[in-house]
Specification:
It comes from Sedimenticola selenatireducens. This protein is mainly alpha-helical. The chain contains six helices and no strands.
């Protein structure tokens, strides 16, 4: 049997590192950083990590709201959404994630677009 994406990304430890880098990237990305000005970075990192852990086949640790509820009324543009994907790709590369896994992660993230952009 093949490994889950969770396992191929390094389990909880690997995914936590990726999620931390994603949030750090968001905080310095001029396209979206203002969206995070009044946010608690540690809480964002925890939420991102647990969402990602659960969503990639790991333990059911995410206790937050669904993507639509989390982004409703934020009026996130397509450009902002692409900036998020760019930040995720940088984090994956920074954590030496393989090409196949990068593609899988980006596919999953992009599949949530309709629950995030202009909702």
């Amino acid at each position: 049997m093949s490994q889950s994406l969770y396992e191929r990304l390094g389990g909880s430890e690997g995914i936590t590192s990726i999620a931390n880098d994603v949030v750090d990237n968001h905080l310095i990305n001029s396209t979206i950083s203002t969206r995070f000005e009044n946010s608690d970075a540690d809480k964002l990192k925890h939420a991102a990590a647990t969402f990602f852990i659960t969503g990639t086949g790991g333990p059911e640790v995410y206790k937050g709201v669904d993507m639509l509820s989390a982004h409703k009324g934020m009026n996130i543009s397509a450009g902002e959404f692409m900036a998020v994907l760019d930040d995720a790709l940088k984090a994956l590369e920074n954590n030496n994630v393989g090409q196949r896994e990068q593609e899988e992660v980006l596919y999953v993230l992009y599949s949530m677009r309709s629950q995030i952009v202009l909702v």
